[in-house]
Specification:
alpha+beta; Chemotaxis protein chec; 3 domains; two-stranded antiparallel ribbon; 12 helices; T2SS_E_N_sf; Type II secretion system protein GspE N-terminal domain-containing protein
Amino acid sequence: MSFLGRFLVEQGAVTEAQLADGLRYQHEQNRRIGEVAVERGMLTPDQVDVIRGRQDDDPRLFGDIAVGERQLSRSNLDNLLFFQKIQHTYLGEALLVLGHIDRARYQELMGRHYTLRDKGRVSLRYLQEFFAENRVVECLFAALTRAVSRTSQEETAIVSLGKAYTPADYPEKALFEGTVLDGRRFSAAIGLTTPLAARLGSLPAFYETVLHYFGDMLRDAALLLESSRIIRGGLPPAGCEDCLTVQAHTPTGGLLLVFWLAQAPA
């Protein structure tokens, strides 16, 4: 689920059905890196199928496997990622094309402010740029859910965005800190319920896996993880006005992501 999409539904801007239609259209329009490679003559369809098959047992991303097996050079992969990015259809564009929201309404929404917390407000324009274009927090959430799926064989679903949480509900926690985007600092707290933590097994290994996926996904989104570290224990105080809070669940238990990114380099 797109963070921006969930936000739009919660604010009544689109319905669940309209969002699903927009996400379907977005998925159809946005081609996978293997499809772009075939289109540009850098890989054959058979090579793409083989690499995708490798991903069943290999945690690396498609591009990393292709480079590792010398089917693509790093330079060719960077070029493919560039072409993939400039052709990307964002959710707002999809909703406009499908007629689920008109341009005047969309422009109005882009300038309005919605309450995410009792005292914290954030504009939809900021959300569009921060979560759809820069995609830092979406990359981290995707890395987190991918690591959960690989470790526990369970899927993760978002249950709330920007709502208050109870720290005691997440006794297992870790803090990720680092810099991205030419020196912009980020801080991300991950909280796990006791049942989910137990199912994930070795938590230090799990957190390292999340960080590894995060770095790979940032690079493939034309972003960069410049530095990082993991600190066990501790969540930001409830009510952090500049943080995005995501609560999600799996069949075994719940997880929490509290994310903050500086708007300018330090």
